[in-house]
Amino acid sequence: MAYAGRAIDESGVPPEKRSHPEYLRRYLELQTLLTALNSIDKYCAHEAGHLIFFERAGLTQFEFYGPTMTFNDLHSFDDESKRYGYFLAAVRTPEAGDIQGYDDEMLNTLARAAVAGEVFNEVRQQSPIRPIDESTDFVGFDAHCRKALREDFEIGYDAKGRWRKAQDAVRAYLQDNANEPEIQSAIAKVRFGCFGIR
Fold it and tell me: What is the 3-state secondary structure (H, E, C) of 147-192?
């Protein structure tokens, strides 16, 4: 299957690093993913889950990123090859970093937004859900929980408990057929925003 969407964004990798064997290996992996059966659908569903629930959290600013090569120059690594990575698609919410005045409802809403991608893939593509400790989406949510705790110690810390409850809430949302038009609309937004495909 040929991929006819946006080109892979290499701008985050210095040109002199693009000939490294690990970069070339990862680039080939990403190209292969772009042409794999249902890969685009899987990532669109994942990001659509985030989009829907971040909109429900009241966020209105979204940045769409398509296939992107990454280079981590912020940390020191014993092995240069660990600096290289990629992602297929991402929907980022710049407003999420500015949230203040957390309360239980806000944390629960953010938990649903963060977990939605993995639950959408679990339910819609029958993909196994990642353990919490392996989820990059959980890392972002956990940062909100820690920030909330610093703002108000009374709020307590229960990121994993909130995460599990959010999984159940998103599963219930997906079981309601009345939500299908919203889901299809979000998938179309992600497909175009991230991949340039209508």
Answer: HHHHHCHHHCCCHHHHHHHHHHHHHHHHHCHHHHHHHHHHHHHHHH
